[in-house]
Design brief:
single chain; alpha/beta; Rossmann fold; 2 domains; six-stranded parallel sheet; hydrolase; HAD-like_hydrolase_sf; hydrolase activity; HAD-IA family hydrolase; HAD-like_sf
């Protein structure tokens, strides 16, 4: 089985860092739950909702990197990664911080390829260009993400989807924990 993974909020619990970075960027005492709700849509929408100029995106990325150094992978993730033939990441996160977190937890060995969307010149998700790039090299059986924008390109390309910790988006499977992954997804006859 070949799986394409989102990174933030899917492989690693980076939302606390993303929220702190966003609140710091805003220079206001924003409600963190509200910030999280908007970031779960996408950062562009959150910027607009809270009146933050898109020109400050680079500053936000730097704050995210600073705060996310302590982010951890989700529980039971490693046993799922070990059971997969090819794991590929497609992320908006920069390559250096992605590599840092994977190496910190000894997970680098499980990934065949990491696509850092903007650094490699692709349009941001949900545009399918980064997924199409991956499909030229690998037959992808499944895409795992926590936001609609992670799963839209997969559905557009006819790939089965898993929504992680988000039952409010359309997906073939919904998981709240990777402890459920092998029994729910791997044993499904339609894959």
């Amino acid at each position: 089985m070949n799986i394409l993974w989102d990174f933030d909020g899917t492989l690693f619990d980076t939302y606390p860092a993303l929220v702190e970075g966003f609140v710091t960027l805003s220079q206001r005492d924003l409600n963190r739950d509200e910030v999280l709700r908007w970031l779960k849509v996408d950062s562009k929408t959150a910027f607009k909702h809270f009146g933050i100029d898109e020109d400050r995106r680079a500053e936000y990325k730097q704050l995210d990197i600073k705060y996310s150094k302590d982010s951890k992978p989700f529980e039971h993730l490693e046993e799922v990664l070990a059971a997969v033939e090819n794991n590929i990441i497609v992320t908006h996160r920069d390559r250096e911080s992605t590599d840092y977190l994977l190496e910190k937890y000894g997970l680098t060995k499980y990934f065949k390829e990491i696509v850092s969307v903007e650094e490699q010149g692709f349009n941001r998700k949900p545009h399918p260009s980064s997924y199409e790039f991956v499909l030229k090299k690998y037959d992808i059986d499944l895409v795992v993400g926590d936001r609609e924008l992670d799963l839209l390109p997969a559905r557009h390309l006819g790939i089965k989807t898993v929504a992680f910790q988000n039952r409010n988006i359309e997906a073939d499977f919904h998981l709240d924990s990777y402890a459920e992954f092998i029994s729910l997804v791997f044993k499904n006859k339609s894959l």
